[in-house]
Design goal:
- This protein has 128 residues and is of the alpha/beta class.
- The chain has one domain: Rossmann fold, CATH 3.40.50.
- Helix 1 links the parallel strand 1 and strand 2.
Length: 128
C-alpha cells in the first residue's frame, strides 16, 4: 500500500500488536498509544494519515478523545475509525453520531480491515 503513518489507540496489548503487525505488513508506518490522552498528544505531534481509536480506554472513552481531536486545529481533519467490540445497533448509532469516519468491529477480519483502512484513506485524500 503505502508508507503512510497510522496511529493506533488501543489499551489491549494483544489487539494493539495485531493491528500494528497487520498494518506494518501492508507497508504502513505505525505509532501506538494505550490511553486517549497519549493518543491525542501523538496525533498533535505527528499528524498521522489515519487514527484507529478504541472506544473503551482507561482514561477517557474514544468518543471523548475524538471530541478533543476535532476541537484541535492540528488534528481536526485526520480521519478516525472507531474500533470496538460494541456491535449492538444502539451502540453503533451512538458511535456513528459521535463523528467517527467509520467503524471497525472486533474481532477484526484481516482482509476486511485492510480494505476499510485503504478505503478510508482514499476517501480522505479525495476530500482533502
Amino acid at each position: 500500500m503505502s508508507d503512510e503513518l497510522i496511529l493506533i489507540v488501543e489499551d489491549n496489548e494483544k489487539n494493539l500488536r495485531l493491528l500494528r503487525d497487520i498494518l506494518q505488513f501492508e507497508g504502513f508506518r505505525t505509532l501506538d498509544a494505550m490511553t486517549g490522552r497519549d493518543g491525542i498528544w501523538l496525533a498533535q505531534q505527528n499528524t498521522p494519515a489515519l487514527i484507529l481509536m478504541d472506544i473503551q480506554l482507561p482514561d477517557m472513552n474514544g468518543m471523548e478523545a475524538l471530541k478533543a481531536l476535532r476541537k484541535d486545529e492540528r488534528t481536526r481533519s485526520i480521519p478516525v475509525l472507531a474500533v470496538s467490540a460494541s456491535v449492538m445497533p444502539e451502540q453503533r448509532k451512538v458511535i456513528a453520531e459521535a463523528g467517527f469516519d467509520g467503524f471497525q468491529e472486533k474481532p477484526i477480519e484481516i482482509e476486511q480491515f485492510v480494505e476499510k483502512v485503504a478505503a478510508t484513506l482514499r476517501q480522505h485524500r479525495k476530500g482533502a
